Task: inverse folding
């Protein structure tokens, strides 16, 4: 397949849904070979099928990004299958608490930090040695709540601030190895995670949309296009950057 990522190998975690699925489809549209990892194996397989149906090449793996051995196995399978890794979108995440800091349980705290922050660290830990063989690009999915606070989701906010810090640290450490490391910071994007938290009530949707300049929710494709740009040669001098994709909510 011709395209911006022809002959390149891209990894997407959380690729069974939302922004991960949209980004996997976008990489495939641009000719990339895509490894799709998700804790929900069936969902990842559906993304693979959609790519194959449109003439692309993809493979899926059922992986919990918070488990080192599973992430190591994912990277090994990617290399065995296609021989290299060129870009990665570390996107898998959860948002499960619904109250202020003192109400957050230890289990909630541990799970959110394990998936969102340790998961991104583990992915980079195993991706970087592969990317170092010929350079490449990593994009981590943070959030606008990785740049400013938000109420009633303290572990999530902490994990996303952590991703921003880790992204900057990795960019400084691996620039000389030809690896660029950036993050996207989405605002309100209509995905399953958003619906689980906010529901689909039109009045509430209008209220949330009105918080940004464009007066609409973002789509998974809005974020996918930003990720592809950060992985492409068009952004060759951009690293350690957190690209806000929020319709102007934080402007
Ligand atoms: P989503 O729920 O549609 O997708 C998340 C995917 O991650 C799911 O397929 C899920 O199965 C997978 N996943 C969850 N835990 C996992 C684990 N341990 N290992 C592997 N896969 C796992 O939600 P989304 O909105 O597309 O979320 C993607 C990312 O975007 C998340 O990191 C989220 O925090 C971030 N984000 C979302 C919004 C929003 O408004 N939706 C805003 C900012 C940032």
Result:
């Amino acid at each position: 397949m011709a395209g911006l990522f022809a002959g390149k190998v891209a990894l997407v975690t959380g690729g069974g849904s939302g922004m991960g699925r949209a980004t996997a489809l976008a990489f495939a549209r641009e000719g990339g070979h895509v490894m799709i990892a998700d804790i929900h194996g069936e969902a990842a397989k559906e993304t693979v099928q959609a790519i194959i149906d449109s003439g692309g090449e993809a493979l899926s793996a059922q992986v919990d990004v918070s488990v080192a051995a599973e992430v190591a196995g994912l990277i090994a399978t990617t290399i065995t299958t296609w021989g290299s890794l060129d870009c990665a979108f570390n996107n898998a995440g959860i948002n499960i608490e619904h109250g202020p800091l003192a109400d957050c349980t230890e289990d909630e705290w541990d799970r959110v930090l394990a998936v969102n922050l340790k998961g991104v660290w583990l992915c980079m830990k195993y991706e970087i040695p592969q990317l170092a063989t010929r350079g490449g690009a990593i994009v981590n999915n943070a959030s606008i709540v990785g740049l400013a606070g938000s109420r009633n989701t303290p572990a999530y906010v902490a994990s996303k601030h952590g991703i921003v810090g880790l992204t900057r640290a990795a960019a400084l450490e691996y620039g000389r190895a030809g690896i660029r490391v950036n993050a996207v910071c989405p605002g309100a994007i209509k995905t399953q995670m958003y619906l689980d938290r906010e529901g689909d009530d039109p009045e509430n949707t209008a209220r949330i949309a009105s918080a940004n300049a464009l007066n609409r929710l973002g789509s998974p494709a809005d974020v996918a296009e930003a990720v592809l740009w950060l992985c492409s040669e068009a952004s060759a001098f951009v690293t350690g950057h957190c690209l806000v994709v929020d319709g102007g909510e934080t402007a």
Observations:
- The chain has one domain: 9-244.
- The mean pLDDT is 98.
- DSSP finds eight helices and seven strands in the chain.
- The beta strands are 9-13, 33-38, 57-62, 87-90, 136-141, 179-186, 242-245.
